[in-house]
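This part of the workshop introduces the protein records we will be handling. To make this concrete, we reproduce a full record directly below.
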Amino acid sequence: MFRKVNKTFCDKRKSNFVEKCKQTLVSGKQTYNYFDINAFNNLSTLPYSIRVLLESALRNCDEFNIKLEQVEQISNWDKTQHQDIEIPFKPARVLLQDFTGVPAVVDLAAMRDVMIHLGQDPNKINPLIPTELVIDHSVLADYARVKDAWKKNEELEFQRNKERFSFLKWGQKQFQNFRIVPPGSGIVHQVNLEYLARLVFNNNSLLYPDSLVGADSHTTMINGLGVIGWGVGGIEAEAALLGQSLSMVLPQVIGFRLTGEAHQNVTATDIVLTITEALRKKGVVGKFVEFFGPGVKTLSLADRATISNMCPEYGATVGYFPPDKQSIDFLTLTGRSADHAKICEDYLRKNSLFVEDGKTKEPKYTAEVSLDLSTVVPSLSGPKRPHDRVAMGNLKNEFNKSLTEKLGFKGFGLNDNQAKKEGSLTYQGTKYPFPHGSVVLAAITSCTNTSNPDVMLAAGLLAKKAVEKGLVIRPYIKTTLSPGSGVVTKYLESAGVLPYLEQLGFTIAGYGCMTCIGNSGDLPEEILNTITKDEIVAASVLSGNRNFEGRVHSHTAANYLASPPLVVAYALAGRVNIDFDKEPIGVDKSGKNVFLKDLWPSRDEITKVVNTHIKPAMFNEVYTKINNGTDNWNSLQIPNSPTYNWDKESTYIKKPPFFDYLLNNKTNSGNISNARCLLKFGDSITTDHISPAGKIAKTSSAAKYLKSRGVEEKDFNQYGTRRGNYEVMARGTFANVKLINTLIEERGPKTIHFPSGKIDNVYDIAELYQKENVPLIVLAGKEYGSGSSRDWAAKGPLLQGIKCVIAESYERIHRSNLVGMGILPLQFLKDQSASSLGLSGKEVFTIHLPEKLSVGMEVKVTTDNKKEFKVKARIDTEPEIEYYKNGGILVYVMKKIIEDSKKI
């Protein structure tokens, strides 16, 4: 029985408004407290995602960090949403993965050293809210298509990363509120969905919505459960875990109405690729997207998570499905207790955060987009961007046409003779034709799809039918299966389809983020030589969410995102330029043509298998093992010391220099004078271009550094695993082999020094400029910094001496990361660009900054050849001004901690 809210207690005229909004709720035999947002009269019109922001602000309102005025601004969202109002947000927890988590823990360890240096207690540096780190990005697909590939890959993972893992285990022991999920457990976002997520927090009998920020852009996957969460840079995540409110502009909310029901042959992947294309066209960067309408109930919770996962690809901050009965049912399906599920439902209903089909009034949105699910067709996206959807039936024509299109997002820039060329591959004694579009990598990977039983079991059922007809995959195609958690293996085994996937070559390669992050491992030399010698546009097909150039593998020029069953299908076909409606996928044992339609499982067939073979006991068994830790993890020996003993010889973990600003009393103030342009780019420079996560090329500056430290090439590992060493990461900045720097004609990670004209690796030229005390800038086009929320894409440029970036537009997270590291993001005014202003990049630039900085101010830029123009400073909130002035958010937070310590 619930106690009714007395609205008179919540009269805004009373000074104790917030305290009076604290109410009680009885669920089961327990009484709980909560902050009641029903106190606000217009609540029924607010989008559910805004209600979560409102509850957080109300609960944390202290008239210091969060003011009542800001709470009211959120509650008046229908009027304030267009006013660029800055609001605070305090998430309930922080989520990290190891690529982003290692540098975060390195920074925390360095903060403890600073505390000792300044005579303070190092133990005061701790996460102030629950912080969870899932080690999932370090495993490579070195072994594939062999029995126990995952065990072999996991052994190599521990050999390569023992020092990193020991460091993280030290952090787990020394830092309060810090928990680690050991390697081999699964992909961070699936582990979050199935295990870590609370839906509703119960903190000493105070109930409030689960919410989080994560240092990975696909944190949004949790939105499918009804939990608000989004990706931030590792820098912002560190500030949040240290108790800082995140400052953000009150977002507009685009309502996405779903109607109808998907056809039998359509998967959740096809739906999300269609939604991604529609929302990119709409333009939702910096906005929330909230899904509603009768079509929502036709989607499983896993389907919703798939759609929410690709939120970064359609550019929004969140892609939110408000909680409903499916959210509660998913809690019990995944092994959460019945008592917790009841508390969640009781609280969410009572606080108007629960959607009940047919009974709940639809909110008012900034604008609406709609999709009839019955119009969705089987789709892929690519060849170079996740939002470039291609209907499966059009892929052959699209690919063939792209060969001779101008080099760009879809074109490969071949001439007619090159496009007609067909290579030849000899592999294991057999000769194969090797034309453009040949598939060399086929991976069922990534949190987008491996969290979804429907598409995973669809892949298994398709594999079963293919094997029964005698179809095989060519042995040179690298095929991998990387489940998002051990539960996937359990239900694939239970359904009896795992042996068929394995027979085709899709043996389990590991439980982590693999091919999608670039951890695809090596391809055979025969393939690499053929691709290079015959200039073949080779292809990969993966069930991931990212296919930017150079990310999946440096030798796959065409990379297509597809559902798991389509990954199997294209691997069987051996090429992407096939029309499955007209051409057979292969030939059966009797010599009869087999078409894709002969193998494709129906939605009803898949649903029956899902309902039969997925049980709560599977989740309990798998996640109990995670709690206990693996043998490899438990065997790691760590010191018991509150501060970390930095090893000067280490090439993985190195004390960062970011707090030199604090110790040397430096600030960002005054003009940026006589700066040189280090790099000049076009549109869509991603964080993979800026700070690649994959293989360290043997000719790179990072490779030279590692060799100088006695590291052999076979032990280089990858950039992602060396994020704890700033020396490697500074050298790895702008080291992507696919980089196009228009200051020079050569494609790749090089640039030119002015005025000498010397051309070298980007880091080496930046180092030369730093010796000359020349500040650096970057010129760029639209969507600068799109892609992963990679903190090193801001840390690396800082260490190279870059003081500001001038771009036509920014992706949300990267812009914030630049400010967070004390780099000034400037934006060309409307209809202006480097080209329209006639900037070659050879000029000497001065950025004229006023003594007092203000949000969104215009700044004058002049050059040595008398050009003058204005740009907009993309410092979007008042706190960001302080971050920039102090040399970054970490230095700012550190100063506050020290000041607070002195007051005690």
In short: The radius of gyration is 27 Å. Confidence is low (pLDDT under 50) at residues 1-15. Residues 7-83 form one domain.
